[in-house]
């Protein structure tokens, strides 16, 4: 296939391009100017320097690539995970405006299939239950988390409502593994070793992770699978109070400290409290049934 990947040098974008090229696909990667272009060329991909915020540039890039499939892997994440909340307005704008430009261009130019990265950790579920693909995003979440969820919900609806193309929404869990924050030499491990990682309140929020390579396998499968929404998460949804100490042991770090909700709210904001007390896990049954998804166990669960 001819495939256009936006965000082609990100944590999932670059290894995805590597796999797509290894499978023989003709890939154009959209990225910012810099070293990322050389990495894409090394993989045998074409490079597009279109600015996601420039609708005409995006349209010209997709017209030139003439792809069968557009994959939106755009993200705006900080180098330091401690800055995640600060970076959310930029990331939200990127999905709202940049994603909107990509989708509009794909529709106008007759692209057959459109695949978009969404959130598998902002899904609404009752306490003790997992969210399936019918679950709504948590649009009532506080602050920047709510803004992000509302933007992604609107984007999902636009993709699935587009009559002229086949829409696929991949709701990924938190990425871990090579090139991500969650690995033995990654940014979260560094925080843990510096004793900068704390559990807020009861730490009862349930997180769904996914290994980056498993997420890529699901993305490749979605090229030809039935259009629709899929939760791309592993089989081990796990509470913060469980995964964080186990992760610390896995990377030889001290036991995480505990901090009260009140203290965390003052120090880090309502969004941080939400991440530790309100997130719900997700079910991957549809991905298993229709994408042949077979995720590995969470590597540090039993550390």
TrEMBL record:
It comes from the Bacteria. One of its GO terms (molecular function) is aldehyde dehydrogenase (NAD+) activity. SUPFAM superfamilies: NAD(P)-binding Rossmann-fold domains (SSF51735). InterPro entries: Epimerase_deHydtase, NAD(P)-bd_dom_sf, NAD(P)-dependent_oxidoreduct. Residues 3-232 form the NAD-dependent epimerase/dehydratase domain. Pfam families: Epimerase. GO terms for cellular component: cytoplasm. This is dTDP-4-dehydrorhamnose reductase.
């Amino acid at each position: 296939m001819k495939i256009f990947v936006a965000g082609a040098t990100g944590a999932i974008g670059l290894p995805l391009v590597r796999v797509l090229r290894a499978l023989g696909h003709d890939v154009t990667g959209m990225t910012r100017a810099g070293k990322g272009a050389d990495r894409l060329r090394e993989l045998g991909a074409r490079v597009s320097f279109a600015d996601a915020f420039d609708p005409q540039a995006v349209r010209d890039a997709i017209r030139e690539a003439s792809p069968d499939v557009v994959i939106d892997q755009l993200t705006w994440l900080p180098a330091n995970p401690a800055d995640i909340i600060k970076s959310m307005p930029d990331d939200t704008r990127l999905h709202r405006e940049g994603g909107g430009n990509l989708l509009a261009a794909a529709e106008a130019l007759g692209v057959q299939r459109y695949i978009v990265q969404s959130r598998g950790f902002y899904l609404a579920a009752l306490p003790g239950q997992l969210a399936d693909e019918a679950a709504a995003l948590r649009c009532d979440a506080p602050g920047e988390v709510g803004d992000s969820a509302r933007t992604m919900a609107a984007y999902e609806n636009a993709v699935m409502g587009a009559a002229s193309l086949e829409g696929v929404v991949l709701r990924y869990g938190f990425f871990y593994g090579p090139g991500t924050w969650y690995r033995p030499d990654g940014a979260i491990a560094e925080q843990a070793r510096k004793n900068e990682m704390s559990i807020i309140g009861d730490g009862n929020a349930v997180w769904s992770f996914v290994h980056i390579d498993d997420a890529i396998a699901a993305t490749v499968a979605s090229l030809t699978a039935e259009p629709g929404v899929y939760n791309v998460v592993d089989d081990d949804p796990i509470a913060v109070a469980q995964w964080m100490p186990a992760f610390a042991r896995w990377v030889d770090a001290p036991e995480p400290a505990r901090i009260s909700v009140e203290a965390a709210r003052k120090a880090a904001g309502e969004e941080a409290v939400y991440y530790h007390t309100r997130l719900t896990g997700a079910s991957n049954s549809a991905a298993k049934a229709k994408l042949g998804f077979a995720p590995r166990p969470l590597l540090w669960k039993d550390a």
